[in-house]
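== Item description ==
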Amino acid sequence: MTKYAIPSDLEEEVVRLLYKRAADLNWTYLTDTDRTRHYQAWTSDPEVGGRLLPFIGKPENVRPWLKDRPMKEYIRATYGVGKWAPLVVKPATPVSTLVDKALGHGWNVDLETLDIKPLCVTIRHEDDEEMEQRFAWAPMRDFKHLAWAAIAAQAGGDALPWVICTVDSFVRKITPEQKATNDRIAKRLGLISAHVTDG
């Protein structure tokens, strides 16, 4: 990835603006087509592309920077992960709440085990500390990435059961058909599938 000499204060201002706009758009649940439209608009926007252009050099470099840098980190940042997390104006539901919604009460989240590709943590049941599971979560669009990460980890020696949790919103709900398909795939792979509505 090309590294540009963007002043840190300018980068922070632009990313803060992008993250505010992303929150207003419910970015996590936008389609790729909608996201493309916004990338094009931001690239030509004087407050975004216009401010980056002197440091990025060419207009065609703006969109890749937006997509591969701040917006690639956006979902993780909403969960408090990464250098841009403090710039998020609308944090996502904490993972402890997602675990409660997905599996019921009684699970403790070990944030020391947080991994980010994909987002996952180790959880332990309060009635039995030996009862451990790996809990991974992402928007519905990333179900296949969660499933692949789980089977790759287990193939590499991770003996813990994996819960892969897809998160939707009231605006863009996972359909019963999608849930059923996810459940069938997870069962076939020896994984646990869960679905949570954020908010």
Notes: DSSP finds eight helices and five strands in the chain. Residues 8-25 form the longest helix (18 residues). The helical segments are 8-25, 32-44, 49-56, 59-68, 74-78, 95-103, 143-155, 176-189. The two ends are 35 Å apart (CA to CA).
